[in-house]
Amino acid sequence: MLNVSRAVVPVxxxxxxVAFASSYYLLGVLADPMARDLxxxxxxxxxxxxxxxxxxxxxxxxxxxxIERRGGRTVLAASxxxxxxxxxxxxxxxxSWVLLIGIAALGFGMAIGLxxxxxxxxxxxxxxxxxxxxxxxxxxxxxxxxxxxxxxRMAAEAWDWRAACLMWALAHLAVCLPLGLTxxxxxxxxxxxxxxxAPPVGWDRRMAQMAGVFAGAWFVxxxxxxxxxxxxxxxxxxxxxxxxxxxxxAASAIGARLFDLVILHRSHPVATARLGTLLHPAGAAIAxxxxxxxxxxxxxxxxxxxxxxxxxxxxLPLHVFGPDRYAVRQAMILTPAxxxxxxxxxxxxVALDVSPGFALAASSAxxxxxxxxxxxxxxxxxx
Length: 383
Known about the structure:
This protein is mostly helical. The chain has helices at 8-21, 27-38, 44-70, 72-91, 96-113, 115-126, 131-141, 143-158, 161-183, 189-192, 205-234, 239-262, 269-290, 296-321, 326-354, 356-373. The protein is built from 16 helices and no strands.
C-alpha cells in the first residue's frame, strides 16, 4: 500500500477550493456586471450555469470510467485545463452568446474536477483507509465559497469581471495544474494499462438507495444555496439579519466536516449519513416552533447536514462496496444528484411562491425520505 504524502491532502483540498470558487460560486458576485456589460437579462448567466450542471450530469458516468482507466491524477490535470479554457472564454467573451457558452462549458470541468475525482485519488492511494483523508479534503474544499466570493469581488472591484475570470483561469493553470502533477503520485503502470477493459458495473439495491440519498441531499443543498436569504426573510427576519443568518450555513458546513474529522471518523459511515439527513428537518422544526427569532436554525441545520453528507458521499460507497471500482460506482451514484441539482433552484422557487412553510415542509420531507433510504446499507461482505 502506498503511503500518502503529507502534501497530497492540502493539494487536493486547494484544488477543490479553486474548482468550486471558479464554477459553483463564480456567478454569485460576477453575474450582475456580466449581464450589465453585455446587455443580458440578469437571470441569463444563471440559466447558463444550469446548463453547465446538466452537462456535468451527462458526463459524470463517463468521468468515472475515465478515472478508472487513466487515474485520478491525470483526470484532475485535465479538469484544470478544461476549467481554464472555459474561464478564458468567459473572460474574453466579445458578446453575450460567447459568454453563455463559456459558462455552460464549465460543466466539462465540473464533471471531472470536483470531489469525486479527488476522493478517487485518495482511494487509489489508501484503499479502505481513506476516510479521514476524504473528510480532510472535503473540509478544505468547503472554503470554496468563503474564499471564492471575496476574491472574485476584490478582482472585479480592482479591475473588472473579466479580470476575475482570468485570475481563476491562471489559478488553475499556474497553481493547481503544476502542484497536482508534482505532488500527486502516478498510478503504477500495471494499474494504468489493464490487459482488458473492466466489465460494466451494474446497479443494485444499495447503489439505488445511496443515489436517492445524495440526489435528495444535493437538491436541498442547491435549493437552500439559491433561496435561503429569501426564505428567512419570508419567515419574518429583516433582510440584514437574513443575510447574516444565511452566512451561518457555510460556517456550519465547515464545522460539521471538522466534527467528523476529529470525533466521528471512527463511527459507522451510515450513522454519519443518517445524522446528516436529520439536521435540516431539525432546524426547520425549531424555526416552526420559535418563529423568526429562531429562523437561523434552518441555516445551521442545513449547513451541518450538508457538511456531513458531503463526507458521506465519499465514504459511504467505500464502506459498502470497498475500494474496487470505486470511481465508477461513485460516479454512477452521484449522477442523479447532478441532474436534480440543475432543477433545484427553479423547483424550490415554486414551493416558496406557495408559502415558506410549504417550502420548508417539502425540503424536510425530502430529508426524511433520505433518512429512510439509509437503512439496509450493509457492506457487500456482510451476511
